[in-house]
Design goal:
single chain, five-stranded antiparallel β-sheet, minor pseudopilin epsh fold, alpha+beta, 12 strands, 261 residues, seven-stranded antiparallel β-sheet
Length: 261
């Protein structure tokens, strides 16, 4: 009996492989896929995101703003220094006679600096006196081959106390502009007095002191950004340009001291 059962078991074979797999596997019932309903952004979440963005922008302005102002100030001072160094070169290059001067003209209202050639007057070499290019009487000419310098927005002039000279010290004044001239020998001179009708021009006198241009940023001048940084372009009597940077610090006794770089 047992032998028969064993023989039947050993000889038992399913008809198909699918039926055998069905005997030993249990398949879970098929379930339909459910799509989650779309969920919008709530007002609270939107306000939180906006608050985070405003905080990031505020921190970026605090951290990045002062370096950008300093970089803009330094760039403007460098451009003005390069323009000032071009004056004696143009005086030697464009002279038509010993009386021809080249002037560095600054317009504080417009923040514009440009080079003016002494071409006015009856003489071929000018009259050794500055006459604004917009003047109706013997105007001088703007040197168009030299790019003028216009100070960017926010850059202002700053008067320094002693021992530093004030801004525009020893500059000749022509209306609302400030003028500094150089002859072909590289001597720094004042603008002189231009000819008026038959009156001969009075040539500019050689300047024995220093002429200075002091630039800073409006936010530094007002105290909104510290420390106060002033870029100083100094022009010597024998033509020479020096660009220095002054930083104002507070001493232990509460007074202000200047460090020069």
């Amino acid at each position: 009996m047992n032998e028969r059962l064993l023989r039947r078991t050993e000889g038992f074979r399913p008809e198909t492989c699918e039926r055998a797999a069905a005997m030993f596997s249990v398949r879970p019932p098929a379930r339909p896929l459910r799509r989650s309903p779309r969920r919008g952004v709530s007002l609270i979440e939107l306000l939180v995101v906006l608050a985070v963005l405003l905080l990031i922008f505020a921190m970026g302005g605090i951290l990045i703003g002062p370096p950008l102002r300093k970089a803009r100030l330094a760039s403007a001072a460098n451009d003005l220094t390069v323009l000032a160094q071009r004056v004696p070169i143009e005086a030697r290059t464009q002279r038509g006679g010993q009386g021809l001067f080249v002037y560095l003209k600054g317009d504080p209202a417009a923040g514009l600096f440009e080079l003016i050639a002494d071409t006015g007057g009856a003489g071929a070499g000018g009259d050794s006196a500055f006459s604004d290019p917009g003047s109706a009487t013997d105007p001088d000419s703007v040197i168009t081959t030299v790019q003028p310098v216009r100070l960017p927005e926010g850059i202002v002039f700053y008067d320094l106390p002693a021992p530093y000279d004030n801004c525009w010290s020893n500059w000749g004044v022509s209306g609302a502009n400030f003028v500094l001239g150089v002859d072909f020998q590289g001597r720094t001179v004042g603008p002189g007095v231009p000819a008026a009708g038959l009156t001969p021009a009075v040539p500019g006198r050689q300047i024995t002191g220093l002429a200075s241009i002091n630039l800073t940023h409006a936010d530094m001048a007002s105290g909104a950004v510290t420390p106060l940084v002033v870029h100083r372009i100094t022009i010597g009597a024998v033509w020479g340009v020096r660009h220095t940077r002054l930083v104002r610090d507070v001493a232990e006794d509460g007074t202000f001291v200047w460090r020069e770089f």
